[in-house]
C-alpha cells in the first residue's frame, strides 16, 4: 500500500468513483477505470484489484434497478458468457495484453459500424434487434472472454443492450444483474490464479467509501438523462473505450 504513494491513491480513487457512477447512471464510464488502475499497477494485479470493486458497485446497481431487468435477454446471454469466462481463464497469461486490447477495441468498433450501417439502411430508424441465436452466442463469448482477460466487457455488453433497443431503466437493470452474476462467477477463477490477494483486498477496503459515493452520484444522473441522451452517452463512451483499447 505504501508503494502507491499519494498520486497512485488519487488515481485509484478516481477509478473507484467512475466505477460507481458507471454502474448506477452512466454506462461506459467504467471502462475508463480499467486503464487508470493499470496505469499505477501491473496488468495482472490491476485485474485482481478491480474485480471486488466492480462487485461492490454491481450490488448497489442491482439494489436500485433489480426490478427492471429484461431476463429473457440475460438468460440468452449468460451460458455463452460463462463459456467465454472459461476460455478467458485458460488463455490468461498466454495472450499478450498488448495484442489483446487492440483486438477487443477493433471488434467493438466493427460492431458499432455494423449497427450504424443497419440504422442507415433502415432510413435512420433504429432497426429491429438481431434475433438469431448466433448474435447472442458471439456477444456472450466475447463478453466472457474479455471480462476475464482484461475487465473490458463493458463496451461489449453496452453494444448488445443497445442492439436490443432496451429503454433506459431496463438497460440499467439488465446490465446490473448481468455484471453482478458474471463478476461473481469470476471470483473463484481470480482467486485460483492468484489475482485476488490479501493485499489487494486491503486496498479494496480503503476504496469502499469512494465506490459508494460514485454509485450515489450516478443515480441522479440517470434520472435526469432523457432516453435519447442516455443512448447517445452510452454510444459515445463505447466508442471512446474502444479507441482507448486500440492505443
Tell me about this structure.
The chain is mainly alpha-helical and 247 residues long. The chain has one domain (5-246). Helices cover 81% and strands 0% of the residues. The protein is built from 10 helices and no strands. It has helices spanning 5-24, 29-40, 43-65, 71-91, 97-121, 133-150, 154-163, 168-192, 198-224, 227-246. Helix 3 (43-65) runs antiparallel to helix 8. The longest helix has 27 residues, at 198-224. It is globular, with a radius of gyration of 17 Å. The mean pLDDT is 82.
Condensed summary:
With 247 residues, the chain is mostly helical. The chain contains ten helices and no strands.
Mean pLDDT: 82
Assign an overall shape: globular
Number of domains: 1
Tally of individual helices: 10
For the termini, the CA-CA separation is: 29 Å
Helix content: over 70%
How many strands, which pairing sense, and closed or not: the largest β-sheet?
none
The proportion of residues in beta strands is: under 5%
Kindly name the structural category: mainly alpha
H/E element sequence? HHHHHHHHHH
Runs in which pLDDT lies below 50 for 5 or more consecutive residues are: none
- How many E strands? 0
Alpha carbon gyration radius: 17 Å
Tags for this model:
247 residues, mainly alpha, 10 helices, 0% strand, globular
